[in-house]
Hints:
Number of helices of chain A: 20
CATH class of the largest domain in chain A: Alpha Beta
Strand order of the largest sheet of chain A: 11-10-12-13-15-14-23
Structural class of chain A: alpha/beta
Order of helices and strands of chain B: HEEHEHHEHEHEHHEEEEHHEHHE
Structural class of chain B: alpha/beta
Distance between the termini of chain A: 64 Å
Number of helices of chain B: 12
CATH architecture of the largest domain in chain B: 3-Layer(aba) Sandwich
Helix content of chain B: 25-40%
CATH class of the largest domain in chain B: Alpha Beta
Distance between the termini of chain B: 49 Å
CATH superfamily of the largest domain in chain B: Thiamin diphosphate (ThDP)-binding fold, Pyr/PP domains
Helix content of chain A: 25-40%
Number of strands of chain A: 25
Strand content of chain A: 15-25%
Strand order of the largest sheet of chain B: 2-1-3-4-6-5-11-7
Largest sheet of chain A: 7 strands, mixed
CATH topology of the largest domain in chain B: Rossmann fold
CATH topology of the largest domain in chain A: Pyruvate-ferredoxin Oxidoreductase, domain 3
Shape of chain A: globular
Largest interface: A-B, 74 and 68 residues
Number of domains of chain B: 2
Oligomer: heterodimer
Strand content of chain B: 15-25%
Largest sheet of chain B: 8 strands, mixed
Amino acid sequence: MTKQVLQVDRVIIRFAGDSGDGMQLAGDRFTQETASFGNDLSTLPNFPAEIRAPAGTLPGVSSFQIHFADHDILTPGDAPDVLVAMNPAALKANLPELPRGATLIVDADEFTTRNLAKVGYDANPLEDGSLEAYQTHSFNLTSMTTEAVKEFGLSRKDASRAKNMYALGLVSWLYNRPTDSTLSFLQAKFGRNPAIRDANIAAFRAGWNFGETAEAFAVSYQVSPAEMKAGLYRNISGNLALAYGLIAGAQRASLPMFLGSYPITPASDVLHELSKHKKFDVTTFQAEDEIAGVTAALGASFGGSLGVTTTSGPGMALKSETIGLGVALELPLVICDIQRAGPSTGMPTKTEQADLLQSMFGRNGEAPVPIVAAQSPADCFDTAIEAVRIAVTYRTPVILLSDGYLANGSEPWRVPQVAELPVIRADFATEPNHETEDGQHVFWPYKRDPETLARPWAVPGTPGLEHRIGGLEKADGHGNISYDSANHEFMVRTRQAKVDAVARSIAPLEVDDPTSDARILVLGWGSTYGPIGAACRAVREHGIPVAQAHLRHLNPFPPDLGDVLRHYDRVLVPEMNLGQLSLLLRAHYLVDVVSYNRVRGLPFSAAELTGAITELADTLDPEPTEVSTR
Amino acid sequence: MTTTDLPVPGLRGVPTSDVPQNRKEFTSDQEVRWCPGCGDYAILAAVQGFLPDLGVKRENIVFVSGIGCSSRFPYYLDTYGIHGIHGRAPAIATGLATSRPDLSVWVITGDGDGLSIGGNHLIHALRRNVNLNILLFNNRIYGLTKGQYSPTSERGKITKSTPLGSVDAPFNPVSLALGAEATFVGRTLDTDRKHLTSVLREAVAHRGTSLVEIYQNCNIYNDGAFDLLKDKDTRDDALIRLEHGQPIRFGADGELGVTRDPATGGLRVAPVAEVGLEQVLVHDAHADDPALAFALSRLSDPGSLAHTPIGIFRSVQRPAYDDLVREQLELARDEHGTSTDSGTEIGHSHLDQLLRGADTWTVGP
Lengths: 630, 365
């Protein structure tokens, strides 16, 4: 029997189960299959902070959502078209977000009286008619899995653990995914344990064959490859792209990299990744604490390495004093903050644009630091290179903001050629740079480049350039300790001027205003790029012109940002915080931007932003007011 | 850069100077601003006098400090230097020493900087055994902040912040370092230039972290704290000079000795005549087991400092952290044939390969 294949343009699938059910792995494999097929895609893993929350409970639910399409997409999608629920907890936790008519695939084996009671179901939802609004496919996934793998002699527990591969096989059939990459992945992952390997492969195949033969599934679906710019592609997560960007940046600056870091969610994966790449002159130092991580990195920078540290909000708080020292020493240092929900420990695995103001102001004294932010998982690569460029060129700490959503989310990435990446010049000092009144040639560590205001980087081992620097205020030029009041004012203003000077190296802000008659600008930063973009498209489809711009540089801002803001009647600033960018924009430009804020630990949905933009459009006068020309 | 190996393991990899160097070259043009009479002057003079003898290039020496009176030290030496933030000098130095095998890296810290706010970094530097020389100036008081008690101040000490006497129990820095797996621990006195220099010489020669506690007089806020160990009348009976391979004897005529206490299994001081010379402990700084070194560190009275051993408590070999880190780096480079020169084509092709990963697909031209 040949089953019917339906063409669809996009699908959102959510795999949900207990933390121990392997949903992240299933999601990851489905993503790779989809990427290699050529769809555009975006993913959203969502898991509890607890390593193993009690099995079968609501806090223990782990999920992975993937949105894939035959066209360019920007978000992991709002509401799933397909929900795979491996137990009652996964069903209960995710059902509220499932639209009517959606497909539901459920492991009926797990719907026991005990499991139902654990999450407060009085009656079995598979039997009481409460799922009538959905296309529910309820199967005994666990027992079908154990049956399929019984020949490998595994314990019941081990056998049933392959059920995620069974579910993956079924969904892979349903959407006509290529299976080669998953089969070779299983070969490699479990190569050392043939029984487990063969069981997983058998479960995956059995799941696929079940879809092929079971009458429950009358049709399967096809999502054609998306049209994308020609090139070589791979799928990449934000943390991986960030690690690669740091390596590429250091390589393009011809500098060894020294990462000083302390484990923290959701940044640890960057430490794990960089520790694998010693051959690129990357030293990783797992420090005794957050402070030692950044401080050792700064020490390495003094010695001529690219000092890097990776952390999240609470770690940023601990690093503040050393970042201030970096401002005073004027040495390159890249601080990557993979933001998470705060305050304090907050919600470690949940995303938030939590730390813009901490990055901007979280130090004693006037201690300006350039800040850049990534807008998508793949963009973490380019943003990291930009952070390295600013740090090395201007001899300054730079803060790079990513967040939990970017860190763990993934998307296709057009792989660049290394030779095409920008070259960064470290230009170590080798000679005395100053002639004293009595004709001596000496080295002045705080004599600046007139263009960038950067001071020379003279590393130990260079004869004749011996110098001492520290956190105490230094006299302009020769850099000796100075408590002179006029000198202090000059130095404070010079350090600010140096950071301001970075703006001269930033391209004008790109504004997407397809019809050039928008009166509303939606301005964002960081990981809200996807949902803002999707919302702007949706609004335009309803005939409302709207412009979108997204900031990579948050300190200093792009030089033309003020003009851009004043060009529009209304500026909407959506943020996953209580208005941190809005505060800076109002203070900087005296423009009364409209904030749209949510702090739920989850990314925006395109739908809610569509609503927010539409609502704002409704408040506009029908007659356009006079606008200044740009 | 010439990298003639010096005989001492602690300076392996540091380029040697082709010409003799003198004390003046190691003295910076900055005016020394410690209080007149401060013990720091004597330590500075000893270090400035001793560094040229090392025979390594001045530009390959880096002094790193935290915050406090002692931490001004780097400004007065014409080497490279960082005056860091409070307590963090061992962390700065760890990053620097790990990334630069050709440097001789020194940490200058005090009892407040190193044992209070920076205690965590100190113990972890010792545990890792990074190739550093840490000089801990212990004056048992906070000087720069004007006279509060420190983590080495004796119990009951009356200071500005403890008008009724301190109720804190003090650290014994040598015991602490031994507990933190230190491979080299020494103690010396600011005023005994000869002894100070000899301990520093051993510390530099040691590969790994060497911690040298230097008893240093603060003549403003804690004057005379170590007089018992310095006064002609008392020092002979109070100070125990440890020498590797020698029986541990002291007193004007060596009439006192350190011996095992059969009752407790610990150490005690006894007249040599009473116990017999064969019962006097022979100092073994190279013993793998740190138990005796620790027991020696506990001999001194925490309040009066009576029976205080100075010299080298422990000096044992354990691979240095930074050497092991660099070994892994070298190995990875060799295995993959990558060049340290990251601008090269071979570097590019490896990086291109990394960026591509295993699962790629091509979208038509």
